Amino acid sequence: MIFSHDTELTLRAAAVLINTDRVDGEHLADLHALDEYLDSFGWTGRRDHDAAELESVHRLRTRLGGIWEIADDEARAVGQVNALLADTRAAPWLTRHPEMPEWHLHLASVHDPLWQRMGAEFAMALADLIRAGDLRRLKICAAPDCEAVLVDLSRNRSGKFCDTGNCGNRQHVAAYRERRSNK
């Protein structure tokens, strides 16, 4: 494990959220899809289950995608992460749950709006990445036909392809076929 469990989980959750509209259309189109996403990553706390909540998560998704796109510019990325921390009024506190007995941070009250809780968690995970000097782990898939994002948690930062569309396998097969055709 490169980062704490909750940081890695939150970074993965951010990438999945961003990719909900980057691969094969909109996958977060309704409240049911939002609930499935939230449940798959164990998000707790207040849920309003209305169109405004879904739209606020869509805006957060766009904002996070923008951070991935400027990850090669540390100063700009830091500015965006600081802005997200400020906008969410992140206030860290330690907690643990029966299903997750390790101590971890929560950054907003369970009563705060969903986007605010999510944004604070995402911003703190990104801050951990920045503090570790690993902002370059935020990547856009290297496949020419893919816009998905990924968090490269490999030991040597060698990951290039997302896991949303089998991009790595497709690129390796294409390279193999190219080599075979040149013989």
Automatic annotation (TrEMBL):
Domain of life of the source: Bacteria
Transmembrane segments: none
Cross-referenced InterPro entries: ABATE, ABATE_dom_sf, Znf_CGNR
Gene3D superfamilies per the UniProt record, alphabetical: Jann2411-like domain (1.10.3300.10)
Annotated ranges, domain Zinc finger CGNR: 137-180
Name of the protein in its database record: CGNR zinc finger
Annotated source species: Mycolicibacterium obuense
Lineage: Bacteria, Bacillati, Actinomycetota, Actinomycetes, Mycobacteriales
